[in-house]
Backbone:
């Protein structure tokens, strides 16, 4: 929504006159909030374009205006801030003079904090005795931010006053300054119990400042004092303990951390974790103590180093593995090896994954999956032919979990080998990991093997690869070749079901061919395969089978498990599903299949199916089923096709033979009334077109470019879209990208000519046509919320076409429209639909 | 959350002091490894009011406008935490949130505050959800960290560089967990795109284009008295006071540099953050920032740049081009290397060659932090003391890229930056605006 630009007439006049930098400088002394920022923007632009000499001149002008008594406060606020950027030492005194000004103190501090001169800090320190209340807190804060060491005596005096209103700021500033003197003041400061936390927090800050300046022993002493002091809040003790561990000399810090990791106190453990995490090079010496630590500490430290690849942990970790009898510690060691283990550790971990008791076994399996050093894959592949079956199993599982494509050649070699157990294991693994390239070997084994076990596993692997492969054609070709070469009925029967997972016309033809195979078992498998075929292309053959098959059971199965199953598949286009169902009604010999087909028609809503059902409802045999299905379709189409749905229900009402059917029809007639609009007036049913783009045009620039929906209705791909009850359509759900537009269209059928109000929201801009006339345009960038724009409209009696154009720059893209009466209340005399 | 992958993701450098960092060590702050049972280490006050141990993490939510309200929904939906307090300077937001919380839990336990200090002072609250405007990020975050609370905070991390560094330092000193609302990291496409880049699938990266939204001029609504439901002086807080207008506050604060940072800063914590993640520069920043152009509004109170292009160069010569998305410069992040490119945006993912989209990242490669629940990751880490997927230092570095760009377009000149010391080279003026004084009585520390 465009904001209304309300400024004083004089301001408008001023803004209009500012066409040069000179005008801007003339306007600056009189600037007040509410005036156009144009003069300020002009000066800012000058500053951006100036070199050092130019900025010096600008400083001079700014100082001159700043010190002119006639300059407004708002102008001086502005000048102070820019002096922080262009000011020299000359600016310090004029700025310092404003520190006791209630409206300018902050602006002056912005500049004084920014200026790089020691005199700026001194000016702030000098102001401390001169200001009070809130302004004092501000100046104290700036002194702290600049870390003005010479202000410490004055801050100390302020502390002595004991005024709770500014004492926290003073403590904080002393903490920031953090010199030895500041630390002494903080340490000896007498503050009430309510300010103890503030003091201790400041001491922590100050101690860190000491440590930063190389005075680590002094810092450690402060941290120690704060850590052991009675009645300290947890957060202070943790921070102090962490600080202590990080500032003690190396050996002492290590000992303390180890003690804390092994200790009973939660907060010290937490501090030790924090300190260890930040210990840098010292981490190695701490981890070196792992073997001599207590199990509790070992567990915690192992957990810490499990994700720290740079810590030299392998040696101590392996030492612990050798020594420990604690299963939890052992498992933690193994987890640690995921990061620290070398390829030479793989065999030992495989052994643990194969035969160790839990929890070590599971830990070893996870570790094998995660081990990240180069060469781990090769080490695992070298073990696939291990004679230890448990180890081999662990390796094969790892190959799967690591998705090691580099293992495929080795697995294929095993598959072809003479060892049936190894071949089965390899086939199982290939089934999980293999692709079309491995199918040939698997189908070869399927056809050639004499082992039922191997055939079973290979069959499962072939199905698995075919079903997940994206290259169905390649898979189908492999199976087609093998089928053609399969000499035995067993091999053909084993291969045929695999075609279900590739699909395709050629594969289907092979199934149809197999239905005429000389072998009865092969024919049976082929028929079952046809019945289970995943694509609708099988429907024709199944229907023919039902019409011509002399075996009545197979005819029923072909319709029930074949055609009707296909008609329920959501991935089959609605029109095809409708056509299958129509044919089943025609072909079926039993009423059961006919009734089921009529019932399923309710799931394929279209105007054509609705017409067919109305005709069926006129026949007494299936009146009830057809009426129920037709009512369901009319209800689901009502949002988009309110007129046709209502007409269909009226016909059904006339034909309904029983009171129950009549009631169902009449209930539906009530329910669909104005289904395209929510109870509170949001338009839900739309047709959508787009996105439309134009090279080098952003969303805003597209606002006034007319795309096809603005010109005529011909050749536009209108797609139905339904808003949620909130009415807001998220256009990104169906269209992505930036710098584009989309159109939304709805039909408003009004019982009478009437006035109404359209309440719109959009992200980004919106243009609106009613019956071909533009009634609203707002080329804006904004998030969408209901009622951002409100437009009074006049509706004709009958149909009114509403068209929205929504622009998109980037980010979210949405629209919402609500139609209400002029008084804002919902209208009961307008029916909304997506189409006529 | 079980983390399946190691470990290069855990690059993290904790400052020993303001500007001094470990130069090479990396670490993960963690108390648990996958599947390993370690005693829960939490402040003792994760207990119920009756003093009985409670596994619930007690949360207080500060800032309940757009993002705060969304974050609240996520936390209400996670039964590991319990929201017991809400805070907002807009009484309407506050009451609405309080009612939502009470309705969710079916009681009247939720306390409502207009002053965050009262909420932070409550010792029974363990964690904070912080979703205030940018100028109100640092002060509550630092206060909460000092009170021993972990924090989920919105992006951009800070309103300026100095307060960002102060936040990182305080969070580290007090050992607090921080998660940033850069939720794109917790979605598959963004992570996968970064993994492709990190693992060299597009060869040697030389450029990354970061496309951010174009801003709008505006803010011309008249000044009026603030609405009675809003404590407007508190809302202005540490930023310079200016008269109220409807264009000043909710949502629109983003377009004013005293309260937000324009579209550039609004999105730097998303696409800029992702670009850094892909480059592996999450713990450093560019060394040169060159403003190519920037258009600033001339009227109204909105003063953030609307169109902008800034070219940042990293120490290894990689160039990051940040621009408002227009022309061929699309929204999102696009890394360009010697062998191809990867582009990712919300709902968009393209590569050249196209086959890269089918690549798989193996265990022996760089596997980035895997997380599919951004808010849940925060609670995971509160319990485990691990680093979150967007910890403070990382969020600060992402925001830093934006702050550096803002300073460069503000000054209109090329700047050289030392990311270790976090200072501009030979430019006192630029160093002078790394931070800005807080309006009294507010102080950062």
Residues:
């Amino acid at each position: 929504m465009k904001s209304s630009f309300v400024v004083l007439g004089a301001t408008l006049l001023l803004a209009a006159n500012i066409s040069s930098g000179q005008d801007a400088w003339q306007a600056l002394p009189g600037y007040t909030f509410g005036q156009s920022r144009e003069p300020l923007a002009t000066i800012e632009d000058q500053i951006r374009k100036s070199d050092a000499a130019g900025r010096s001149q600008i400083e001079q002008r700014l100082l001159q205006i700043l010190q002119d008594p006639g300059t407004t406060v708002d102008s001086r606020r502005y000048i102070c801030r820019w002096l922080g950027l262009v000011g020299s030492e000359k600016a310090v005194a004029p700025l310092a003079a404003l520190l006791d000004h209630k409206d300018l103190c902050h602006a002056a501090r912005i500049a004084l904090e920014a200026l790089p001169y020691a005199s700026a800090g001194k000016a702030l320190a000098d102001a401390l005795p001169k200001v009070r209340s809130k302004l004092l807190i501000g100046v104290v804060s700036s002194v702290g931010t600049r870390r003005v060491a010479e202000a410490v005596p004055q801050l100390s005096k302020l502390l002595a006053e004991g005024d709770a209103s500014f004492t926290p700021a003073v403590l904080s500033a002393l903490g920031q300054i953090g010199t030895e003197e500041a630390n002494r003041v903080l340490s000896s400061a007498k503050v009430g119990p309510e300010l103890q936390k503030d003091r201790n927090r400041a001491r922590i800050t100050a101690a860190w400042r000491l440590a930063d300046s190389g005075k680590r022993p002094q810092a450690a002493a402060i941290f120690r004092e704060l850590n052991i002091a009675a009645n300290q809040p947890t957060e202070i003790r943790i921070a102090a303990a962490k600080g202590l561990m990080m500032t003690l000399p190396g050996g002492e810090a290590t000992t303390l951390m180890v003690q804390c990791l092994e200790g009973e106190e939660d907060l010290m453990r937490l501090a030790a974790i924090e300190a260890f995490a930040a210990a840098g090079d010292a981490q190695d010496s701490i981890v070196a103590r792992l073997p001599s630590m207590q199990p509790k500490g070992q567990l915690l430290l192992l957990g810490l180093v499990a994700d720290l690849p740079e810590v030299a942990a392998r040696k101590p970790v392996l030492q612990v593995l050798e020594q420990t009898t604690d299963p939890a510690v052992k498992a933690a060691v193994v987890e640690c090896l995921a990061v620290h283990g070398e390829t030479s550790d793989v065999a030992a971990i495989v052994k643990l994954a194969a035969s160790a008791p839990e929890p070590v076994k599971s830990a070893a399996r996870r570790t094998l999956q995660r081990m990240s050093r180069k060469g781990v894959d090769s080490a695992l592949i070298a073990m696939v032919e291990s004679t230890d079956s448990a180890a081999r199993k662990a390796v094969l599982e790892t190959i799967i979990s690591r998705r090691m494509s580099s293992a495929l050649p080795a697995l294929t070699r095993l598959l072809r080998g003479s060892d049936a157990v190894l071949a089965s294991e390899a086939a199982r693994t290939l089934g999980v990991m293999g692709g079309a390239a491995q199918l040939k070997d698997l189908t070869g084994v399927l056809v050639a093997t004499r082992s039922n076990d191997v055939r079973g596993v290979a069959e499962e692997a072939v199905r698995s690869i075919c079903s997940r492969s994206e290259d169905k054609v390649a898979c189908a070709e492999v199976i087609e070749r093998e089928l053609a070469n399969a000499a035995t009925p067993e091999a053909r029967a084993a291969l045929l079901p695999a075609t279900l997972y590739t699909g395709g016309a050629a594969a289907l033809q092979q199934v149809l061919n197999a239905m005429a195979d000389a072998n009865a078992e092969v024919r049976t498998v082929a028929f079952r395969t046809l019945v289970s075929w995943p694509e609708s292309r099988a429907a024709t053959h199944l229907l023919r089978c039902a019409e011509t098959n002399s075996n009545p059971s197979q005819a029923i199965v072909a319709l029930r498990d074949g055609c009707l199953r296909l008609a329920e598949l959501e991935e089959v286009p609605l029109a095809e599903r409708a056509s299958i169902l129509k044919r089943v009604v025609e072909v079926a010999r039993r009423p059961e299949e006919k009734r089921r087909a009529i019932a399923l028609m309710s799931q394929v809503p279209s105007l054509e199916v609705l017409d067919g059902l109305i005709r069926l409802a006129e026949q007494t045999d299936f009146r009830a089923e057809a009426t129920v299905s037709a009512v369901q379709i009319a209800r689901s189409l009502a949002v988009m096709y309110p007129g046709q749905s209502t007409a269909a229900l009226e016909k059904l009402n006339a034909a309904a033979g029983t009171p129950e059917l009549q009631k169902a029809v009449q209930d539906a007639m009530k329910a669909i009334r104005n289904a395209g609009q929510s109870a509170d007036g949001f338009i839900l049913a739309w047709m959508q077109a787009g996105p439309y783009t134009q090279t080098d045009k952003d969303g805003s620039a597209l606002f006034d470019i007319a795309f096809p929906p603005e010109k005529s209705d011909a050749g536009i791909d209108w797609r139905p879209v339904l808003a949620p009850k909130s009415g807001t359509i998220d256009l990104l759900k169906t269209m992505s990208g930036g710098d584009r537009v989309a159109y939304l269209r709805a039909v408003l059928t009004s019982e009478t000519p009437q006035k109404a109000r359209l309440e719109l929201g959009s992200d980004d801009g919106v243009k609106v046509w009613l019956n071909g006339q533009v009634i609203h345009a707002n080329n804006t960038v904004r998030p969408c919320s209901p009622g951002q724009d409100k437009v009074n409209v006049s509706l004709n009696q009958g149909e009114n076409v509403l068209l929205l154009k929504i622009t998109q720059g980037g980010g979210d893209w949405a629209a919402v429209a609500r139609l209400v009466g002029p008084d804002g209340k919902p209208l009961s005399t307008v029916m909304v639909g997506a189409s006529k | 959350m079980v983390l399946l992958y190691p470990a290069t993701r855990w690059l993290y450098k904790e400052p020993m002091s303001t500007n001094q960092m470990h130069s090479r060590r990396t670490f993960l702050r963690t108390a648990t490894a996958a599947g390993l049972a370690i005693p829960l280490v939490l402040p003792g006050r994760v207990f119920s009011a009756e003093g009985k141990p409670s596994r619930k993490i007690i949360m207080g939510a500060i800032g309940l406008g757009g993002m705060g309200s969304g974050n609240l929904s996520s936390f209400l939906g996670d039964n590991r935490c319990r929201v017991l307090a809400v805070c907002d300077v807009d009484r309407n937001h506050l009451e609405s949130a309080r009612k939502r919380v009470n309705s969710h839990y079916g009681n009247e336990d939720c306390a409502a505050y207009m002053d965050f200090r009262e909420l932070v002072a409550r010792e029974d609250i363990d964690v904070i959800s912080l979703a205030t405007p940018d100028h109100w990020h640092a002060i509550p975050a630092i206060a909460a960290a000092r009170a021993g609370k972990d924090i989920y905070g919105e992006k951009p991390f800070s309103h300026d560089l100095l307060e960002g560094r102060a936040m990182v330092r305080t969070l580290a000193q007090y050992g607090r967990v921080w998660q940033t609302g850069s939720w794109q990291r917790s979605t598959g496409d963004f992570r996968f795109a970064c993994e492709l880049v990190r693992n060299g699938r597009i060869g040697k990266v030389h450029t990354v284009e970061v496309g951010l939204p174009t801003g709008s001029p505006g803010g011309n609504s008249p000044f009026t008295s603030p609405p009675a439901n809003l404590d407007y002086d508190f809302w202005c807080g540490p930023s310079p006071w200016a008269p109220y207008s409807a264009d000043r506050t909710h949502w629109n604060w983003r377009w004013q540099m005293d309260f937000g940072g324009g579209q550039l800063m609004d999105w730097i914590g998303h696409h800029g953050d992702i670009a850094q993640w892909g480059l592996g520069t999450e713990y450093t920043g560019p060394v040169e920032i060159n403003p190519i152009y920037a258009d600033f509004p001339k009227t109204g109170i909105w003063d953030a740049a609307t169109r902008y292009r800034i070219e940042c160069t990293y120490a290894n010569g990689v160039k990051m081009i940040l621009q408002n998305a227009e022309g061929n410069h699309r929204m999102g992040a696009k890394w360009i290397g010697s062998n191809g490119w990867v582009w990712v945006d919300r709902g968009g993912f393209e590569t050249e060659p196209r086959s890269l989209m089918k690549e798989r990242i193996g265990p022996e490669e760089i596997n980035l932090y895997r997380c599919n629940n951004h808010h849940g990751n925060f609670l995971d880490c509160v319990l485990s003391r691990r680093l979150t997927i967007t910890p403070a230092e990382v969020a600060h570095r992402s925001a830093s890229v934006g702050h550096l760009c803002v300073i460069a377009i503000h000054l209109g000149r090329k700047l050289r930056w030392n990311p270790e010391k976090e200072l501009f080279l030979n430019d006192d003026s630029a160093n002078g605006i790394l931070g800005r004084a807080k309006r009294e009585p507010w102080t950062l520390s």
